[in-house]
Amino acid sequence: MFLHNQRIGNKDMEGSHIEIPSIIIETQIPLSDSDRSRSGFEKVQEFPAEDRGTLNIKPPENQEFVNPPESDSVQWPPLTNALGMIGQDQAVNQLIKQVNFSRASKRRFPDKLLVGPAGVGKSSLARAIARGLLGEQEILFNGADLRLPIMIVNRLNENQKIQRNPQNPHAPIRVSKCLIFIDEVHAISSNVAATLLNAMDDQRITTIDGVNYDFCKVVFILATTDPGKLSEAFNSRPDKTYLRPYNLPEVAGIVWLHGKEILNGYDLPRDVCYEIAARIRCQPRRAVRSLTQLIIPYFHGETHNGDEPVDYERIASALTRSAIASWFDEQDIDMNGLDPPARNYLGNLKRTGAMAEKRLQQALGISNHTDFIEVDEYLIRLGLVKISTGGRILTSEGNRYISKSFDLRERISRQIS
Predict the structure, then answer these.
(1) Quick one: pLDDT at residue 381?
(2) Domain spans, the chain
(3) Domain 39-63+335-417 falls under CATH 3.90.1150.10
(4) Alpha-carbon distance 211 to 154, whole Å?
């Protein structure tokens, strides 16, 4: 979920006025080491040409552009919802109602577990709740880094949220009003999990290093891409909100929204936004990162000399669909987002026939299983690969794609079951 830089004063579906502080977009999204290793652009470097086998998928001759959908149901420029976001309207509307009720009734906002694949807006939504409910920033943790309960206390101290009572040193130490957001909560350690479950219990008292802390004024927002790794208590104690994957028009809209911000108000054409969204496999975070950190700097270099002042209109004018397509072609990413690792996957199945998942991952030289699953899921989604009793095999379309790629963009969006 991506936030637009504006002050919100919209009305919800029932017409009640929503007063939520200004929510600021963050276009510079940090690139972690794990993200860097999975990025479609950096991934090209992981598979030297000699390791890709002898099969090369030929690009279509005189390739015709695939037009974005012209359905009247696809609004362009895209509309933002009540939080200035594109997408997740149902979840946003429900959460806004809960925020408004909590503020009006002076009741604590319920703890939340946000569930959804990477890049659907869990962090942005937690940020919006923190600013809309409390008017301040969230206190952020990554589950993989949260190994000891005392780390929570240390961060609260840094944010001046610990309220000690010198007149009653034996009473639980109160934690001031705040929102704690823990991303990838399934990765926390077992002792941190026990501490958090106590903090979210009815009494909201938990013990950390022999000291009792009162979390009555604290809202916990947890996020996970894999709820199956959480205990039953973690799945049931917080209120659960599911965030669906974005579809291609929504990701194109997110590209447009971020492009308008970084290009100083100049609009990217619709077909340019769709081209970027499709080539990045309908992944919003990577699409935005590609636009802001790779594409715009590249076209700045193509349109400017030396240290002359940045002319955003000149850059925006250079961002045509054909120019974007050529840029992706130079990155060896085809019209449907297939890069060398994905084509290597198809080539291996063409040479060997059915292959079990582990054997195929080893043959591709992909050490990280998450990286393999990403390629595997995408090729299955496109209908180029299917799972048989003998393992992964090419479909008839997969065999045809190896000879000549063709338009599969109507399949890029994940299907919602």
Answers:
(1) 95
(2) 39-63+335-417, 88-242
(3) no
(4) 13
Architecture of domain 88-242: 3-Layer(aba) Sandwich (3.40)
Angle of CA points 365, 371, 376, to nearest 5°: 90
Residues 290, 255 contacting (CB under 8 angstroms): no
The residue behind tokens 């970084």 is: 262
Lowest mean pLDDT among 82-91, 199-208, 300-309, 314-323: 82-91
Contact 114, 122 (CB under 8 A): yes
Q: Which pLDDT score, from 0 to 100, does residue 390 have?
A: 92
Amino acid at 264: N
Tens digits of residue pLDDT in 251-304 = 999 999 999 999 999 999 999 999 999 999 999 999 999 999 999 999 999 999
Cis peptide before 77 (omega within 30 of 0): yes
The answer to whether the 39-63+335-417 and 88-242 domains have the same CATH topology is no
Bridge partner residues of 223 (DSSP): 114
Selection from 115-119, 124-128, 331-335 with the highest mean pLDDT: 331-335
Kindly write down the DSSP assignment for every residue of 190-231, as one continuous string.
HHHHHHHHHHTSSS-EEEETTEEEE-TTEEEEEEES-GGGS-
